[in-house]
Amino acid sequence: MLTKQESACPLLDDVHRIVADRACSVLSLDIFDTVLWRRVPRPTDAFALLGSRLRDAGLCPPWVTDATFRRMRIAAEEAARRGRDALGTEVSLFDIWRAMPAGIFGSAPLEQLVGAELRLERELTVVDLDVAELVKAARKQDVQVVLVSDTYFTEDQLAHLLDRPELGPLEDVRIFRSNQHGAAKASGLWEIVLRDLGRSPEQVVHVGDHEVADHEVPSELGVRTVHYRRFDVPHLDVLKREREPVEPFGDHAPDLDDRHGDFGLTSLRAKAVHSGVPFTTSALDVAWRFGAGVLGPVLTGFAEWAAAKAHEAGTRRLWCSMREGELLSRLINEAARARGWDVEAKPVWLSRFVTSLAALDPHDTDAVHAFIRTGYRLTVRQTLSVLELHPGDVPGLATELDTVIDNGDVAGRVARALTETPHLSNRLAVTVTAARERMIKSLRDAGALDGAAAPGRAGDAGELTLVDLGWGGTIQRQLAAALKIARIGVRVSGLYLATDDRAERVYLAGLRAEGYLAQAGHPAHIAATVTRSPEIVEQCVNALCGSLIGFTEDGGPVLGETSDSPSQNAERRTVQDGILAFQHIWNRYVAASGGAWPDLTRPGPGRDRLARILVAALESPTADEAAVFGNWTHEDNFGSSLVTTLLPADLKPAVPYLSPGDLDDLHMRDSFWPALIAASDTGLGAMARAIADGAIDAEAFEPAGEPYETRLRYRTADGQWHDPVRRRVRINHNGLSFARLAFEHHDTVDISLAIPGRPAIVRVDWIEAKVIAGGRRREQVLRWDRPEDFVGLHYADCRYLGGNLMEFDAPYAAVWLPLARRAGVPAVSSGQVTIAFAVLPQSMTGMAPRMPVDRRAERSARAARLTERLREEYRTAGVKGVAVGAGRVARRKLGDTR
Questions:
Q1: pTM of the predicted protein model
Q2: Could you point out which of 259, 568, 641, 828 has its C-alpha 20 to 30 Å from the C-alpha of 765?
């Protein structure tokens, strides 16, 4: 439900009350950006469109580009004002065109050129519906309405621009123009207005957008004013991150349509942002702004496009998969209603998990293996439960029920156990078939399969069109496969906000899948940005319920538990209110235009502008957005109860060590929204924004010279060392470095870390290893951050210098970490290793002087290694093992004395 407010525009609430009470005699209104606003970001952007019109009409040479003409028109107005001398600076449109270079426009008469600009202004200007309501209210109460404007338009020209049905007849409305009286509002026009009206200032209420001319100056005279501001500072910051020029005479604006300008998006976003009531917390204000100013325009365009696609195809029903479906279906229905299209959208219960299970081939070991690996860190017991199997059904897994499936070896054993015998394979088939039938019953009950063809008549197949946020089209592909298995003649199509290159599997299955902002990974930058950080969009759109994990026998949804806090739910609800508020305002203008309002359905500047809004928000969240959304939680929703925050707690201590390139290296599981991490640090955020804006190349933040890498190798119980995992070493603005590396193998014992990947002196601030050990369900955190932690480690071609300093002599020099021994288990099956360090590179020739060794630390390190070795020999062979070890040491010492 929309946030409640007294009128569509809270800024005008006080004026409505004054007018209703007849507590004023005169309602004064500014004209431009108050009574009328233009479908361009700034008034001067209309000049660029005028240049295009004149070129098309043959009145302007081809070499005069839109940006060139805009600059020329701005300069001509400045020249006309300067040339007035003692007559003041107020000019007319004719004066401005006389200052334009006549030779460029051939023999076109002045009146024709002025008329072309006036016609464009008429096309681009829109009546502010909230101000129009105020005018109607004033007339109803017999309150005089006057217009006061700084303008170069004549009385007749203004009458043409203001002749709109929304404003009614204006014969009784007095208009005070700056070029009529030779004075602007900030320099004498207000005194003229008050004198000519014969009213005291207190009897006048003025509404206008300019802080000085419409607010400060008349207020000083005693006029009651409302600053009908277009943008506030937070919204200006959002426009700047979108690379939208905000200075009136600044750079040429991007993504302008020759006919529709910016489609009204800039003004309507600002109106939506300001339409919210004052919130009780700053977090709710941030949430509202994100909904009204960012996701609102994007999802309004998406909903309009989806409805248009259905309308053009003759499809009367769209199906929006839950949990996003509740909001998406509402947006689509509102869009169709506003445009007069016979299209209805309904939510339908589907999820990646239930469709994957319904389409699973229980006899295909590889398919079962892939299904198992889709879940994140499920135990064997949890996996069997997901497949509706009891531990006793699979005796071969009895000893591994609490083992976490965190690597391919464990997943392979489970998959083979489930498919190696006909009995178990058939048992799994029963589960899959039952899950598929329950899903189909749910679809039938909803009406989603009403167009299904009879079995054996595929040519008569109906179509089920899904609408979803998208990304890889998995639900569509798996649903189509499940329906094919059930021999239900329905073609499954998909309409998505964006899809990446994973959607190629949908196309290879012969299915139609269309993307609004990006399709099949193109445009690459849009697709990559949206699908790399999709969680915030999904979380903002989701209904306030748990994820779908199955169906009851009668087809009802079975939902998982939700971990959302009351504050997250309130913030999500506010985001959705903001989204609906923007669409409500957009549709008001669609309805008021009588069908003439531009739509956002076609490729071109409108959709490009929406893509820029969303990409900028994902690449460069504000510090306020990071503070609010960083605490939101994410559920795994594939049979797991795992919950993580969008700004992971384990990365907060690492922020001072991160470089922009390190953010790009993070896996999706490390951070669902890397830019959120950058936003929490001033320096890192500035660098990330500079790269996102294209102001500087990412390579500028990489160390000069040959790149070098941190390398992790792991040793298994058979003594074999495995190929290294690599991460590039970077030195950030704090002089610090970061590396995060992951491995998986069911019997890992030790790892070696070539931290700098080159000769260097390294200060290791901390090393943290999160490991799954000994079949335990929860990961174990191992940490090395004190001198005593580093003393006893094994150093290969490197030396411990004392404290937390190490010297590496070669690219392959490495320190060994005994993960299994430290965890107290025979082996670990997977791990994630994070290193926070500072590196001082040394000469690659090895000729640089070596750091002096702390002899006391060296002796302590030797004693620690000897003690640890004795403990290990005692654990493995008892007293006899200690004796053998002592003998070995004695023989070595005897050999040293020869």
A1: 0.89
A2: 828
